[in-house]
Write a structure and sequence with these properties.
The protein has 399 residues and is α/β, with parallel strands linked by helices. Among the domains are: 40 residues, no CATH class; 210 residues, Alpha-Beta Barrel (TIM Barrel). The protein contains 15 helices and twelve strands. Strand 9, helix 11 and strand 10 form a beta-alpha-beta unit. Helix 2 runs antiparallel to helix 14, helix 4 packs across helix 6 and helix 5 packs across helix 13.
């Protein structure tokens, strides 16, 4: 009981780690069926699992939709600042403590985007399938990370189990196909009237002005892509936000498929109801459904993989495999993100990750609880004292 009283936060975390196992989610789900794929799983590096509290936290921050990220960060910044300022001490000390919490949040956000770290890798049981990304960018895109080359993009994909990726820079056709470490395939993301269209295949440059002005003119792009022998996929979030009522017209115009999962913060919040409507539409018309990392060089992990079947076509040609926490971004209200995102994160832990969490909680609690001299900060405590103090005389010297 004394340990519980002295370490309430640690005990609460440990309890959360254990209790959420009762509502555990699979590591991966099929975005169409909602079921765990029986032929693919995530392989986590030893270091990823060993550092599970950091790994899981950075992943959970990566998989926030834009609205939920804004709400969560606002709540956490205010709460941590208030808690720090409420602790007893001088005014200067309380102000300092109030600034520490928000600074930690800023550092976590920076680490989420930039920190090199181990990442999970998708492993498919069937070696004949292609683990594919349909939509990714290099620094050739206007919003790509500076210095983010095709080689960097290939390494990023290879580390996460992809065997191929289409490079779809904004309005620039990728013309440098590669085979190592994975196959980089030609593509482009055309920006036309209130819509981005991912074109897969070598294709040719188009006059984008012909497809501006209104929806009817924009839809003519699909005819041009077919003339070039390319495949045209409607990208998120544009068709969801700008053309929700036009999707039957997309089908009539010859769209080849729709993205149903996109990892970009502005697109990851695609609602479950809208996703189901698009899946049903694609199934009725035998159209492709895809997932997209939409990687621009920021962030270290993907939220989605595609398992592309050899010789397949249409709706059954591709399976979209994603992290369950991603699908929840469109169903959980933004204002709940500060507590619902941690809850979703803990539910998705594997048992090795839970054991890692519990181990770190115990180690840090012991570290903080070690005896120490008056005025000595929490830390090594007794170890520091044993290394620096002279042994006391026992009264036997010279006897």
């Amino acid at each position: 009981m004394n340990f519980v009283r002295r370490h309430p936060v640690a005990m609460l975390l440990a309890l959360l780690v254990l209790l959420t196992a009762l509502w555990a989610q699979p590591s991966l789900v099929d975005a169409v069926t909602g079921a765990a794929p029986g032929d693919a799983d995530l392989v986590r590096p030893v270091l990823y699992t060993g550092l599970a509290p950091l790994s899981n936290l950075l992943d959970a921050l990566t998989f926030l939709s834009l609205g939920r990220a804004q709400a969560a960060l606002l709540v956490w910044v205010i709460a941590l600042a208030a808690l720090g300022a409420a602790k007893p001490g001088s005014r200067r000390r309380r102000i300092t403590r109030g600034l520490v919490g928000p600074a930690v949040i800023v550092l976590l956000v920076a680490a989420t985007v930039l920190l090199p770290r181990p990442v999970p890798r998708l492993a498919a049981n069937d070696s004949t399938v292609t683990v594919l990304d349909y939509h990714a960018h290099t620094d050739a895109s206007h919003d790509g990370r500076a210095g983010w080359t095709a080689a960097d993009l290939a390494e990023w994909h290879a580390a996460q189990g992809f065997t191929a990726a289409y490079v779809t820079d904004h309005n620039i056709i990728f013309s440098r196909p590669a085979e190592r470490p994975i196959a980089l395939l030609p593509g482009v993301e055309w920006s036309v009237y209130r819509q981005h269209v991912v074109a897969l295949g070598a294709g040719r440059t188009i006059d984008r002005e012909r497809y501006q002005g209104d929806t009817r003119r924009m839809l003519g792009l699909f005819t041009e892509l077919h003339r070039q022998g390319a495949v045209g996929i409607a990208s998120l979030p544009e068709y969801w936000r700008n053309h929700r009522e036009d999707l039957d017209a997309f089908v009539a115009a010859g769209v080849d498929g729709f993205e149903i999962v996109n990892c970009a913060p502005k697109a990851i919040g695609f609602s479950g109801a809208d996703r189901r409507d698009v899946i049903d539409l694609a199934a009725r018309h035998d159209l492709l459904v895809t997932g997209a990392s939409d990687n621009h060089g920021w962030g270290k992990v993907t939220c989605v993989w595609n398992i592309s079947l050899p010789g397949g076509h249409g709706f059954r040609a591709n399976r979209v495999i994603t992290r369950p926490i991603v699908l929840a971004q469109g169903t959980s209200p933004a204002w709940t993100a500060a507590f619902s995102q941690p809850w979703l994160m803990f539910r998705g832990l594997t048992w090795p990750e839970r054991i890692s969490w519990l181990t770190w909680i115990l180690v840090l609690s012991i570290y903080r609880g070690m005896p120490r001299r008056r005025g000595q900060r929490a830390g090594l405590g007794i170890l520091a004292r044993s290394l620096t103090e002279e042994p006391e005389a026992d009264g036997t010297e010279g006897a």
